[in-house]
Amino acid sequence: MSLASAATRRQLRLRLSGDLQALSALHIGAAAEGLIGDSVIARDGLGRPIIPGTTLAGAIRAQLAGGFSSQDELNDHELAGSALWGSNDSNSRASRVVIDDAVVQGEYTLELRQSTSIEREHGVVAAGHLFSREVISAEAVFSFSITVEADDTTEDQAIGLLDTLQELLTNSELFIGAGSSAGLGSVGLIESLREQVDLRDWAGIRGALAEPATDPLSITQSEVRSTAREPRTGLLRVTGPWAPDGALLSKVASVGGPIDAFPLTAQTADGVRLLYPGTSVKGVFRSHAERIVRTVSGVPLPKGGILEQLKATNLTPIADLFGTAGDTDGSGARGAVSFHDVLSRHPLDRALWNEVRFAEGAATARADDKRSALAHAAAAVDELNAWGSATHGDEALWFDVATRIAIDRWTGAPAQGESGGMLFTSLEPWGAGPGSWGELVIDLDWALLVRRNTETGSRVPFAALALLMLVLRDFAEGWIGFGSGTTRGLGSISVLAEQLVLGVGRGDFAGRELIAALEGKSLADAVGIDPDLAELAEQLDHEWAAVVKHNADSAREAKAGGEDSHDE
To answer: Can you give the pLDDT at residue 141?
Structure first.
């Protein structure tokens, strides 16, 4: 093949490279059994954590397309279509886009996140549904490189692709991996370089070999983080301060030491922060939302356990908001609402925390009994509390070593297990006010809801928004608790509806005009019917009532059909 004929196919080579930083914890699962968790992160042959190029390509293409109803629609998309990304249909063509595996750079920390499902009927942990996944902590940095090879017919599309992708990544609008609706997978480009090689003549080729034309762009970590606070295109964001009224414990068990449970933490560059994960926020909000819909629609709990409950049959708009569990046919779907991880506002001193968290196991080995080991751990906790008070004042978290014991229901005395008294000790964090924890951040992908329901009208998006507002109202009124022990005095939350602020994503997107009036309004404005929101409130009420009726009718039909089948 001559150089001339080859050049007609690949005349321009464009490349975007740089450092991709995890702005939240990240899980890219691997098809391997984990020794420390149910799902481990992907690694290369040298054992280094990676983000596979296939994962990046899928996430980037999906974000560019913004949702599509058919393969033909995707293939015709200007930036995400087959002209650049290739296809495997009857007109198959190779992709012009090459994305390298992103390999971790420098130091990083691995963490183990555990989650569970709550059985809806009894409100307890569903049997067999404890799941753990390995994650790489926020602030880890990966290499990043994407190359697009274009000809005269695709040059504008290739340039548009890299321009758009660079904007998405510098604005932290790309999510990759598992758990993106529950606080994981946010990434941003903190430093990038654009290169262009013109292969249309020998001069361009020789110049490219000498020094490719570059367009450098640098963006600092702080700029990425501040940009990430703004809702991306298509979103309705709810943000606001909150505070626990007492102890708040999202716990992780410990074996072998005097303290049996510790608060969940995340490693950050400046220390250790307490973590209330987005998975937990999503879980309590979904449970409450289902309770609302089942109550007003009269939809009973399905038989068959937690997986049947998570399918949300006849529970519009639960599935649209929170997603559905999939069968073997791949029928599951991601929900439109996502919940960010919540971190303590200030970091803990890493050395002092490690003394509390890890050194107490060695103390147990040295101690004659658990009581002296517990005293050693309590002294370390006192030192941590003193440091926090001196460093962060009223915004510091305070830790309490709480010991409890079960009572024998027959004798009324302390219960005895196989190895003695059923004593349980946990380290419980307390916060003095809103300054102790970071803001709550909830994103509703309004554009996704509108696109998914274009053919069926706007009923589901408005009903979904109405349900989210109802859940947030109950949250502000104190009906929803966080963490463990919510029926035992723990996890009570204070939040003011006036301080939960709504923000609408920048730019133009499907359905933006329908919610534009919510920009800058508070939850109190929304549920209290601000005059500016009267028209929107009327539409929310109407569509919510229609969906409730639809759910009730569907449930009655399903019940009647089941009874008829049983009679036969």
So the answer is: 93
Peptide bond into 317 cis (omega under 30): yes
Sign of CA dihedral 82, 88, 93, 97: positive
- Whether residue 192 contacts residue 166, with contact meaning beta carbons closer than 8 Å, is answered with yes
What token pair was written down for 221? 């970590």
Q: Is the peptide bond before 241 cis (omega within 30 degrees of 0)?
A: no
Task: Return the closest-CA partner of residue 237 out of 413, 389, 441.
Answer: 441
pLDDT digits (tens, 9 = 90+) for 68-80: 556 677 777 778 7
Does residue 292 contact residue 544 with C-beta atoms inside 8 Å?
Answer: no
Distance of CA 347 to the CA centre of its chain: 21
Of 220, 135, 142, 225, nearest to 182 by C-alpha is: 135
Q: Which residue type, as a one-letter code, is found at position 361?
A: G
Token pair of 16, please?
């975007």
Burial of residue 36, with CB atoms counted within 10 A of its CB: 0-12 exposed, 13-18 middle, 19 or more buried: exposed
Phi/psi at 339 (nearest 5 deg)? -125, 125
Residue linked to tokens 């608060």: 263
Q: How many residues does the chain have?
A: 568
In what side-by-side order are the strands of the sheet with 440-445? 337-339, 440-445, 235-240, 501-504
Q: What tens digit of pLDDT does each residue of 219-276 get?
A: 444 444 444 457 777 889 999 999 888 888 887 777 767 888 888 888 887 888 999 9
Name the nearest CA neighbour of 111 among 56, 37, 221, 55: 37
Using an 8 Å Cβ cutoff, are 257 and 317 in contact?
no
Reduced to 3 states (helix: H, G, I; strand: E, B; else coil), residue 522 is strand
- CA dihedral defined by 151, 157, 159, 161, rounded to 10 degrees? -130
Strand intervals (E) in 419-566: 420-421, 423-431, 440-445, 493-494, 501-504
C-alpha 224/C-alpha 155 separation (Å) is 29
Q: Which two tokens stand for residue 416?
A: 């005895």
Helices in 240-299 by DSSP H: which ranges? 278-297
Give the whole-angstrom CA distance, residue 380 versus residue 128: 36
Helix (H) or strand (E) holding 190: strand 186-198
* pTM for the structure as a whole: 0.82
What are the backbone angles phi and psi of residue 506, rounded to the nearest 5°? Answer: -70, 165
Q: Where along the chain do its domains lie?
A: 8-229, 237-243+277-342+438-567, 253-272+345-436
